[in-house]
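Sample pair:
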Amino acid sequence: MSFPVWIKLALLALFVSPCVSVARTNAQSNKSSPLIYGEPDGLTGGDCEGIMMRLDFVAVADKDTAANDQPIIIVARLGGRENARGLNRRRLHQVAGYLSRRVSKGKVITAEGERVSGLGRLEFYVGGRLNLVLKIRRNRDLVKGCVPAG
């Protein structure tokens, strides 16, 4: 059974509107505490769309923050039993390339932080506050093969 175009458009509007609302709500709720993803086993890089959605939440939070002139700072931290600093650099390059296409040029700053126990992580600071933490499975890239390097 084929539906008229106006019904298809109405259904599309019903689907898209809540998605935008969720993104805005998540961005606003992050002002009190950061979102943390990847517990207990860590993200594997297999959920490309999920990772990109979470990075889009960071971009939305940046646009909604009162301190919009501040940079987005991404700090990569190696986890326990991770030794390759190149792994940190790859993780940073992958997410910074994606975010740089969604916010003002030169707004994304990357850094390598001290090692943490447990899972390696990427921390995203927006408006000077911790907004998002992505915990990553040991010795894994976060989005390898998902996001073209920027």
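The beta strands are 35-37, 72-77, 108-112, 120-126, 129-136.
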